[in-house]
UniProtKB/TrEMBL annotation:
Keywords: Glycoprotein, Hydrolase, Repeat, Signal. Residues 328-349 are annotated as: Disordered. GO terms for biological process: cell adhesion. Residues 328-342 have a biased composition (Polar residues). SMART domains: Int_alpha. This is VCBS repeat-containing protein. InterPro entries: FG-GAP (IPR013517), Int_alpha_beta-p (IPR013519), Integrin_alpha (IPR000413), Integrin_alpha_N (IPR028994). Residues 1-31 form the signal peptide. The keyword Glycoprotein applies. GO terms for molecular function: hydrolase activity. GO terms for cellular component: integrin complex.
Length: 494
């Protein structure tokens, strides 16, 4: 099985650090806004849309060329009926579909050109340019009244010879607070590139600067650099901040360490960076309703700590989630939860992968962001790695782990399908308002049918997630070839 993008990179790096003890392969989440219901609207109809990928899909017979699928929201949610499926063979999209390009291996949305429609930044980290095998590429797909149509622009690598995998991680936000959506793009080194919002139709930005968080750089053998980027306003100043999941910049290497970089009038500040608890996947949302974004990081490998307190990645445990609450000065107090905490559903078991994916959104409209957490490697009965997801609700005191929690698997009453080996239900998860009612619905990706992939849609009924109106969308229903393992829904745009 081919590993999914973000956790795959983390797995390879952690395996290098621990002598190959980690034998897991897995999937990718970030958060778009820290205080409201997240919503990408590519066609401007006021209802949230979902952009996802099939990064390993065959395109015109080319293995792993990759596709991006947009499911447009309606009053009854998302389905395969109203959608757009694009690849590098789509008219207007730069380049051409080639074997192994993995078009869509990273995704980020925002109104980059200021026309009122959200646009989609698409990473193609394995794009070959000349003799540079993994040079990478980034494509900007422009939104319109018809959604994403293929009209697009190329965002060329400004330092191709300095790194590989251009576009392997991205995050959109208003980092300088000028009201325009900026874009951060990363590659295989620690250097990030910040593009100021206000892109032209040809993909030219008003300015570009570099940001160098204190994380380890990498190369083809050891894919260090940023593993994940997450945007959100943690200190409540109206500017977007950035959390960088990476590895501490030590010689010969450091453990997984995350950093908070605040947004300023001049962009992102590394001088004011703060070190955070470990985690491979991060989301930002205002869980306790105090106006500050809270940082939630999933540490699916939780092997305890070294003598100096440094967390040790270890796949033999069940995983945990670290929650660092925001404040006027940025990251503040931190709490950790796992499946043994309070009344969190299930129990912490070896290899569950609790925290392998997560996202935040307000399911019931009470002003507190709620949290969905994936345990994509959870064994259910005799079915190995069937996967399950947990929903925990926000409150004035933070995440509620004593009551109201929900859990869903494909064997849950009303959820389409059934538990199957290596389905990895929760390969990615997202809380997004795709019905236009102001409440976040639950979207769940999986490795259904041996890696073809599928989407499960569970709506909010206004107070909680319900299975009434649940829907299942497989790869074939959205025009993705099921040759090989396309991994439809392995990545959701944030």
């Amino acid at each position: 099985m081919r590993a999914h993008h973000r956790i795959a990179l983390a797995t390879a790096t952690a395996a290098a650090l621990t002598g190959g003890l980690l034998g897991l392969t897995a999937a990718p989440a970030t958060a778009a806004d820290s205080t409201t219901v997240a919503k990408a609207d590519f066609n401007g109809d006021g209802i949230g849309d979902l952009a996802t990928s099939a990064g390993d899909a065959y395109v015109n017979g080319r293995k792993g060329a990759g596709q991006v699928v947009v499911l447009y929201g309606t009053k009854t949610g998302v389905s395969g009926a109203k959608r757009t499926t694009l690849s590098q063979d789509t008219p207007g999209v730069p380049g051409g579909a080639e074997t192994g390009d993995t078009f869509g291996s990273s995704l980020a949305y925002g109104d980059f050109n200021g026309d009122g429609y959200d646009d989609l930044a698409v990473g193609v980290p394995h794009e070959k340019l000349g003799s540079d095998t993994n040079a990478g590429a980034v494509t900007l797909l422009w939104g319109s009244e018809n959604g994403l149509t293929g009209k697009s622009a190329d965002l060329p690598d400004p330092a191709q010879s300095s790194h590989d995998y251009w576009g392997r991680v991205m995050a959109a936000g208003d980092y300088d607070g000028d009201g325009r959506t900026d874009l951060v793009v990363g590659a295989s080194t620690s250097t990030l590139y910040l593009y100021k919002g206000g892109f032209s139709s040809t993909g030219t930005a008003p300015s570009r600067t570099t940001v160098n968080p204190p994380i380890q750089s990498g190369d083809d053998k050891y894919p260090f650099g940023p593993m994940n980027l997450t945007a959100g306003d943690v200190n409540g100043d109206g500017r977007t901040d950035l959390v960088v999941d990476g590895y501490e910049n030590k010689t010969p290497y450091g453990w997984n360490t995350n950093y908070w970089l605040p947004g300023t009038a001049n962009g992102l500040s590394t001088a004011a960076a703060k070190k955070l608890r470990s985690g491979i996947i991060t989301g930002i949302g205002d869980i306790n309703g105090d106006g500050y974004g809270d940082i939630v990081s999933g540490a699916m490998w939780d092997g305890g700590k070294l003598e100096d307190g440094t967390p040790i990645p270890d796949a033999s445990t069940g995983g945990r989630v670290n929650i660092t609450y925001g404040s006027v000065s940025g990251p503040n107090r931190t709490a950790s939860i796992n499946q043994d905490t309070g009344n969190v559903p299930g129990g912490s078991e070896k290899g569950d992968g609790f925290g392998s994916e997560l996202d935040l959104g307000d399911i019931n409209g009470d002003g507190y962001q709620d949290l969905v957490i994936s345990s994509m490697f959870e064994d259910l009965g005799k079915v190995s790695e069937a996967g399950m997801v947990t929903v925990l609700y926000g409150s004035a005191s933070g995440v509620n782990t004593t009551s109201r929690a929900q859990s869903f698997a494909q064997s849950s009453t009303g959820v389409p399908g059934g538990d199957e080996k290596a389905d990895h239900f929760g390969a990615d998860v997202k809380l997004d308002d795709v019905t236009g009612d102001g409440r976040a619905d639950l979207l769940i990706g999986s490795d259904e049918d041996g890696g073809d992939g599928a989407l499960t849609y569970l709506p909010s009924d206004g107070t909680r997630i319900t299975t009434k109106g649940a829907r299942f969308v497989n790869a074939s229903a959205v025009g993705v070839s099921t040759s090989g393992t396309p991994r439809f829904t392995s990545i959701f745009a944030n």
